[in-house]
Design brief:
Its EC number is 3.2.1.14. It catalyses: Random endo-hydrolysis of N-acetyl-beta-D-glucosaminide (1->4)-beta-linkages in chitin and chitodextrins. The protein is an alpha/beta fold. The protein has 2 domains: about 325 residues, TIM Barrel, CATH 3.20.20; about 45 residues. The chain is about 25% helix and about 20% strand. It has a 9-stranded mixed beta sheet. A 3-stranded antiparallel beta sheet has the order 14-16-15, with no helix packed on it. Strand 12 and strand 13 form a beta hairpin. It is globular and about 65 Å long. The relative contact order is 0.13.
Amino acid sequence: MSFHLKGLCLTSLLAFMPLTYAGFSSSSSSNVAVYWGQNSYGQGTGSLAQQRLSYYCANTAIDIIPLAFLTTIVDPSANFANAGDNCTAVSGSNLFSCPQLEEDIATCQTTYGKSILLSVGGATYTEGGFTSSDAAVAAASNIWDIFGPSTSSNVTRPFGTSVIDGFDFDFESSVQNMVPFANQLRSLMTASSSSTGKQYILTAAPQCPYPDAADGSMLAGAVSFDAIFVQFYNNYCGVQSYTVGSSTQNNFNFATWDNWAKTISLNPDVKILLGIPGNTGAGAGYESGTTLAAVVAYAKSFSSFGGVMIWDMSQVYSNTGFLDGVTSDLSAPASTTVGTTLTTSTTKLMTTATTTTGSATPTNTSLVSEWNQCGGQGWTGGTQCVVPYVCTAQSIWYSMCE
């Protein structure tokens, strides 16, 4: 991901209604999340330049908008590209005051029913996490004071009185002591929910190779996530590797993530969103049309499937018809040609198999080309690479010709 009733006053009625999730639904397979904040399409002016947040919230196709990014955590700072032009620097802080975002977040939540998350990390994040568990817990408490429902007068609050609906982790490199950081945020959100009724969500955006290098420790049954926005792009396991009509997917590994959701995730109801680029320049492996429709239909047949994540808003809005296509794909039936997942009860190692074979013994002896899968737990495809490439283990689940 780069650096998108008659006779009764309605207002009175709403005041007595219980607060619920805004936008994101844990029971839905058609959630749409689109990142906003980085203006990655690169237009400085005009209709294709990044617009204010509320402009996009009016789009009924979108449910979740992660704001990208909080770029440092220990000494918090944020970068929202050209949206920052409407913010004001605060003396003694790396943060800023942004009344427009304060207004727009409230509008997005109350008028349009969106879930607004703060995405932490991004490609420029270089802190590497925290030096200790205590430092991680302290940082999480500070971030909660800044962006949660805090009344503290000792912190700079970029979004003023507005309160986000949760946090998203988008770390692109190895980080330390993230489990205590994530669990402290989760604990603070849970405590707030029990007292106010407002529900919060915690998500992460790992890259598709499993286990993810950055989020591995959090995803190893240590943190309860509500949804995972898997980046199925910029990698060999992206949507471009999907084989249309085949129940055996050699590289595209949604089945692996579905199995993670069922056997390892601390939250057994976690949703996996199919992360895709919103345009040709948004990430390697862009797909659209009938190919993307086939991928969505395949992924939709897994019970953990929760919808689609797209990078990013500016790319989507420069790609006419793309978002309409995604929503249409999500409303279509699931594929009947689908791989199933198997697990070992003692070790919870992740394996995949098809509906027609339950054996982990390789059945394909054809030579494998460069960058393609040639082995791993449960692999049934070719294991010999074309000359001069060598089958090299990346993890217990995946080996690749390189």
